[in-house]
Amino acid sequence: MSDRDLILAAAKLARTAPETWNEFLGAFVSYTDIQISNCVSSPLEELQRAQGRAQNASTLLRLLREALKSADQIERKTK
């Protein structure tokens, strides 16, 4: 699955159930914050793994937060 597919699926869900979508995003923000905190406080031997988790969560959160805007841009290009 590409980013495009994930963006379109996320935007569809956000449009269909906006309240639930916002609850999910809030939970994902908390999850991401925890991953970032774990990275900062991680022991040296776990640093790379913790950093990867924090980076992945941050990247995914950004993609999800921008899903509606990105989906609109994708849909305009395909018309």
Topology at a glance:
Blueprint: H1 3-16, H2 18-40, H3 47-65, H4 67-78
Helix pairs in contact: 1-2, 1-4, 2-3
Stretches with pLDDT under 50, minimum 5 residues? none
Given helix and strand content, the structural type is mainly alpha
User: Any idea what the shape is?
Assistant: elongated
What is the count of structural domains?
A: 1
Oligomer: single chain
DSSP E strands, number: 0
Question: Over all CA atoms, what is the radius of gyration?
Answer: 15 Å
Work out the helicity level: over 70%
Main sheet overview = none
Percent of sequence in beta strands = under 5%
Number of helices: 4
Head-to-tail CA distance between termini: 22 Å
What sequence of helices (H) and strands (E) makes up the elements? HHHH
What is the residue-averaged pLDDT? 96
TL;DR?
Helix content is 86%, strand content 0%. By secondary structure, it is mainly α. α1 crosses α2 (18-40), α1 packs across α4 (67-78) and α2 runs antiparallel to α3 (47-65).
Description:
By secondary structure, this protein is mainly alpha-helical. It has one domain (about 5-79). It has 4 helices and no strands. It has helices at about 5-15, 20-40, 45-65, 65-79. The longest helix is centred in the middle third of the chain and has 23 residues, at about 20-40. The model has no long low-confidence stretch (mean pLDDT about 95).
